[in-house]
Design brief:
This protein is of the alpha/beta class. The protein has 9 helices and 13 strands. The termini are far apart. The model has no long low-confidence stretch (mean pLDDT 85).
């Protein structure tokens, strides 16, 4: 795959250098910083494809830094690492907008594979097939990586964008959890993280704030489907 510029934000020098060495050997361009304050300065000065962000920094909480990025409309890929392995901690990181979450200690080969999976997934959103997807007033433009409702943009992370694109490609049927894991995350993601459910809730919240004309519905026992609210009402009335 093409080299990517990656920023590592990790306060442990040994871990940060091992991550950097692993990714440099795979051809990527790596910068390293060790605090939240340095992170903000470094991010503003570089064109990064992905950030590897430690959850616990000396002067900042990684989930809060990630949440601030998303609230500012920044869709940079965020790969969060942490020693906190409780399910609640993982869910909090994902809900803050992280695209993936890995707990320490971890195998550096797995870390590199998951980073490159995120980068490939982001590349796929710029593909030319089915350049624009539409349902009701909702439009997804793959080439421009843009989602709008009646022309008004919706800010989505790369993961949310990929999830929405897959659902919009399959509005004729419910899409089950395993299909979404394979299509959006691209590998055997730890099912204990409930990552699909978290991102469905995250995406549903953003869609409901933007429009009442499209619903992301849970079809019990079968999966998830995007529908116009008109079709939902017609189904309920029959």
């Amino acid at each position: 795959m093409s080299p990517a510029r990656i920023l590592i934000v990790e306060d442990d020098p040994e871990i940060s250098e091992m991550i950097a060495d692993t990714l440099r050997r795979r051809g990527h361009i790596i910068d390293v910083t060790h605090s939240g304050a340095e992170f903000a300065q470094q991010l503003n000065g570089g064109d990064y494809a992905l950030v590897i962000l430690d959850r616990l920094l000396p002067d900042a909480e990684g989930a809060e830094l990630c949440r601030s990025l998303r609230q500012a409309g920044d869709d940079i890929l965020v790969f969060m690492i942490t020693a906190q392995d409780a399910l609640e901690d993982k869910l909090e990181g994902l809900e803050a907008g992280a695209d993936d979450y890995l707990t320490k200690p971890f195998a550096f080969a797995e870390m590199a594979m998951r980073v490159e999976t995120l980068l490939r997934r982001a590349d796929r959103t710029t593909g030319t097939q089915e350049e624009e997807l539409c349902i009701g007033p909702l439009r997804l433009d793959r080439g421009r990586k843009k989602v709008t409702v009646d022309g008004t943009p919706i800010a989505l992370t790369a993961t949310e964008f990929s999830l929405l694109a897959h659902l919009m490609q399959h509005t004729d049927r419910p899409v089950d959890r395993m299909e979404l894991l394979n299509a959006v995350w691209g590998y055997d993601f730890d099912p204990e993280t409930n990552v699909v459910e978290v991102y469905i809730l995250y995406l549903r919240r953003k869609l409901s704030q933007a429009t009442t004309d499209v619903a992301l519905r849970n079809v019990r026992g079968f999966g998830y489907v995007l529908e116009t609210t008109d079709s939902v009402l017609e189904e309920q009335s029959t």
